[in-house]
Write a structure and sequence with these properties.
This protein is mainly β. It is 3% helix and 55% strand. The chain is built from one helix and 16 strands. The chain has a 16-stranded mixed β-sheet that branches. β13 and β14 form a beta hairpin. InterPro entries: DUF3108. It comes from Flavisolibacter ginsenosidimutans. This is DUF3108 domain-containing protein.
Length: 250
């Protein structure tokens, strides 16, 4: 039996990147369902380029999601998230959120000073704890977790700064299983992230994520209930991966 993990997990605090690289792109189809009927309602993309910010090399992650024009009358989404992440420490340096969700618009711009342990927003300067994450940096740090160190139902904690507040968050590891997506069948690692309640997603452990059980750890499928119905995202294309996608089952 594997020993239980105790104390702050090194995978989040002091993470080192072993999964992503310059020019990685992952594409998703977004499906919306009510009463068990799925329709392709939109697309999402995650791109990673290495740039320099304040003299430091940084991963510039851009995550964009949009509904198809013909479904905008149901629920229009035009979301763009950006995070600049220190390539050496995987700590966020800057975070930008620009969203339009069914007419609800919100813009957020955060500058993190990791040496001073502060975050600067349009509301002021906030003192930060160690190992703080933003929404996107948390995703890319989670990709670097060595899940073999954990047992089913173990929680992997971290802290996230969003909307001028610090949240105590965690990922609950659910083990490994095969998952069949619109792209193909994969060996996958399964977990549930704790969510902050927003305009689309409910709070709590409602979302389920499957990532590839290979060195890339790219998200393959994401499922979650939303305010009305539920959504499912399936990986439908990729480019520039650091390793072969060896988890795909032929």
């Amino acid at each position: 039996m594997k020993p239980k993990q105790s104390g702050p997990p090194v995978e989040i605090c002091g993470a080192r990147n072993v999964t992503t690289q310059h020019n990685e792109t992952v594409l998703y189809d977004v499906f919306y369902t009510v009463a068990g009927v799925y329709i392709k309602a939109g697309e999402a993309t995650f791109t990673n380029t290495v740039e320099r910010l304040n003299g430091k090399p940084a991963f510039h992650i851009v995550a964009e999601g949009k509904t198809n024009d013909k479904y905008d009358w149901i629920y229009k989404v035009r979301d763009r998230y950006e995070s600049y992440i220190d390539t050496a420490t995987m700590e966020p340096l800057k975070f930008v959120r620009n969203i339009n969700e069914n007419g609800h618009k919100h813009y957020e711009n955060i500058t993190f000073n990791q040496s001073a342990k502060t975050a600067v927003t349009d509301k002021g300067v906030f003192k930060m704890p160690d190992c703080i994450q933003d929404v996107i940096s948390a995703v890319y740090c989670a990709r670097n977790i060595n899940f073999d160190r954990f047992q089913k139902d173990d929680k992997i904690p971290f802290k996230m700064f969003l909307d001028n507040e610090i949240y105590d968050m965690y990922i609950r590891y659910l083990g490994k299983e095969d998952v069949k997506t619109k792209f193909g069948k994969f060996r996958a690692i399964k977990f549930k992230p704790l969510l902050v309640k927003g305009s689309i997603f409910e709070g709590g452990e409602k979302m389920t994520v499957w990532v590839s059980d290979d060195p890339n750890h790219i998200p393959l499928r994401i499922e979650s209930p939303i305010i009305v119905g539920s959504v499912k995202m399936d990986m439908m294309g990729y480019g520039g991966l650091k390793y072969p996608l060896s988890s795909e089952k032929k």
